[in-house]
Each structure stands twice: as structure tokens, then as C-alpha cells.
């Protein structure tokens, strides 16, 4: 029986220093039935030329050059081009273990979504690795996606460390929302998850996710636009959870609310305390908040404060908490 083809999609934008190592980790795969699609998203640092050079190494590598349009547009063009039975997304500055694809394929007979393991790699300004941390799975290694959604929540957001079935993506015309500046990958995943039930975790398929120390202000990363996009994602997720996870949707929803409270508390500079207050109020009134005994006592207290509209207390707590880090 012929082995199934895997399409590996890598958006490329100004990653000349890291791209070769990323591509090499794919060329060293024990599983050879794959195509590698490099989508150059209008790079200006020499990455475009490097993509063409890498394509000469292997006939498995296909390069697409396009005007800069963002990671979602790059992934969408990759999906339009992909010929594989399965799809894998890899970021251009990360690497995968040499049995990554083989183990995914072996596990694919049992589920419509296969989730790998992820190791965070922290790199300082001199390019030296100073910390490695393997994320731990909390859910059973296989089961019903919706029954274990809360245990899987930290693994269901981004598109990396996953194996998708291309037939499901094509049948339902699933694509990344190019209008979103954040959470576009989560919105794509919600769309995919609607049409599956089973998942499997393949712990030995290791994805190494690199974090590079930079001095970019959080205020340039998280803005009122990104907050609006996060709210859009929350609306979609809430509807998704109520439909597919009726017994746990409130717990998961509160978990996500707390996550955004932490995320936007970090903003300073142009993002004032009064702006953060408006964010807190908007999150508190997005959907009804219910205290859940499964949550920690601290999270329960935050929910109570939001229910009582004591938004300033929440603002002071999270801003103070961030500054103490």
C-alpha cells in the first residue's frame, strides 16, 4: 500500500538566519513521503533567495513567492497548493524531530487530529540557548476531543505540533481569516474541530518552538485592534463550546477570560490604565459569568469581582501583578 503524502506548509518572512536549520530538520525525516511548501511572504532580508537555493537541494521542496500579506495569507496559499492527504504547519524559525512525520502517520489511523509534543527553547540576544522546557500533556493520550477539551486546551490553540486531514479542510473550505491580526490560528482550529470527534497524542513527535529575546514593546504587539480580534475569537469560541462542550463550556470560557486579563495587563506606553479598564469591562459583559467550583479560589474571586462590576479592583490587581514580574 502506498504511503500517504504529507504536505508541510512553512510561511517565510525575514527569517534568513533560522530558515536553513528549519528546512534541514524536515529533510532529515525518517518518513519520506512528503512535500515541503515554502511560502515566501515578501521577505526583504534575503530569505526569498534562500528559499530558491534550498529548493535546489531537494525536489520535495516547492517555493511560492508572494507580496507581503501576513502569515494567514501565506498559510492559505499553502493550503491552496497542497496535494497531501495530511497537512502539517511548521513555523520557519522552529525545528522538528527526525521521526516527527513517521510517528504522526502511524497515529493517524486512530484519529482525525494528532497532537505532538512541544518543547519551548529560549534563546538570548547572542543566539545562545539558555532554557529548554518540555510542555506536559494533561489529557489521556487518545479519546473524544470534546470530552477532554478542557484538559487539552493549551494544545488546541496554534496550528503547529498537529497533523490535520486535508480532506476535512477541503470538504468544508476551511481557511485562515486574513483580516485578523491575532488568534487567526485559533479561529481556524475551531472550524476544523467542528467536523471531528477523535484525537490522539503522539508524545514522541517533538516540535521545538524557539523564543528569541527581543526588546519589542508589548504595546506594539498588543493593541486595541488585537483586543478586538481576541474578542471576535472569544465570540466564536463561546458558540463553539456551548454547542460541543455543554458540560464544561463555562469553565473553559472563564479560563480564556482570565488569560486575556493577564495578556492585556502587560500593556503600557500608549495603552493606558483607563484603556485596560475598558478591556476589563468589555470582557466582563461579553457573556454571563458563572463561578465554577472547578476553578481555583483566586479565579473564583476574580469572577465574583467581575460579576459585582468591581472592575477597578481587577484592574489594580492585574496591573500590579504584571509590574511585580
UniProtKB/TrEMBL annotation:
<keyword id="KW-0328">Glycosyltransferase</keyword>
<feature type="domain" description="Glycosyltransferase 2-like">
    <location>
        <begin position="7"/>
        <end position="169"/>
    </location>
</feature>
<dbReference type="InterPro" id="IPR001173">
    <property type="entry name" value="Glyco_trans_2-like"/>
</dbReference>
<dbReference type="Pfam" id="PF00535">
    <property type="entry name" value="Glycos_transf_2"/>
</dbReference>
<keyword id="KW-0808">Transferase</keyword>
<protein>
    <recommendedName>
        <fullName>Glycosyltransferase 2-like domain-containing protein</fullName>
    </recommendedName>
</protein>
<dbReference type="InterPro" id="IPR029044">
    <property type="entry name" value="Nucleotide-diphossugar_trans"/>
</dbReference>
Amino acid at each position: 500500500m502506498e504511503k500517504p503524502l504529507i504536505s508541510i506548509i512553512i510561511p517565510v518572512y525575514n527569517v534568513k538566519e533560522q530558515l536553513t536549520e528549519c528546512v534541514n530538520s524536515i529533510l532529515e525525516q525518517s518518513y519520506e513521503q512528503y512535500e515541503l511548501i515554502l511560502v515566501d511572504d515578501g521577505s526583504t532580508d534575503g530569505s526569498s533567495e534562500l528559499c530558491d537555493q534550498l529548493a535546489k537541494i531537494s525536489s520535495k521542496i516547492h517555493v511560492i513567492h508572494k507580496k507581503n500579506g501576513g502569515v494567514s495569507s501565506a498559510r492559505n496559499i499553502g493550503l491552496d497548493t497542497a496535494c497531501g492527504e495530511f497537512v502539517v504547519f511548521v513555523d520557519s524559525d522552529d525545528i522538528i524531530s527526525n521521526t516527527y512525520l513517521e510517528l504522526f502517520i502511524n497515529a493517524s489511523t486512530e484519529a482525525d487530529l494528532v497532537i505532538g509534543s512541544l518543547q519551548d527553547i529560549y534563546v538570548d540576544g547572542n543566539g545562545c540557548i539558555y532554557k529548554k522546557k518540555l510542555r506536559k500533556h494533561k489529557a489521556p493520550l487518545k479519546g473524544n476531543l470534546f470530552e477532554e477539551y478542557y484538559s487539552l486546551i493549551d494544545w488546541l490553540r496554534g496550528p503547529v505540533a498537529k497533523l490535520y486531514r486535508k480532506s476535512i479542510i477541503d470538504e468544508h473550505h476551511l481557511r485562515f481569516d486574513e483580516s485578523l491580526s491575532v488568534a487567526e490560528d485559533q479561529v481556524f482550529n475551531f472550524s476544523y474541530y467542528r467536523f471531528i470527534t477523535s484525537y490522539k497524542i503522539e508524545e514522541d513527535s517533538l516540535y521545538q518552538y524557539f523564543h528569541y529575546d527581543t526588546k519589542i514593546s508589548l504595546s506594539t504587539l498588543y493593541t486595541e485592534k488585537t483586543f478586538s480580534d481576541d474578542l471576535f475569537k472569544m465570540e466564536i469560541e463561546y458558540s463553539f463550546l456551548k454547542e460541543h462542550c455543554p458540560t464544561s463550556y463555562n469553565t473553559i470560557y472563564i479560563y480564556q477570560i482570565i488569560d486575556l486579563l493577564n495578556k492585556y495587563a502587560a500593556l503600557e506606553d500608549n495603552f493606558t490604565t483607563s484603556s485596560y479598564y475598558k478591556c476589563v469591562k468589555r470582557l466582563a459583559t461579553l457573556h454571563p459569568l458563572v463561578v465554577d467550583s472547578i476553578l481555583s479560589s483566586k479565579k473564583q474571586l476574580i469572577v465574583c469581582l467581575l460579576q459585582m462590576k468591581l472592575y477597578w479592583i481587577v484592574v489594580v490587581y492585574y496591573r500590579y501583578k504584571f509590574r511585580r514580574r
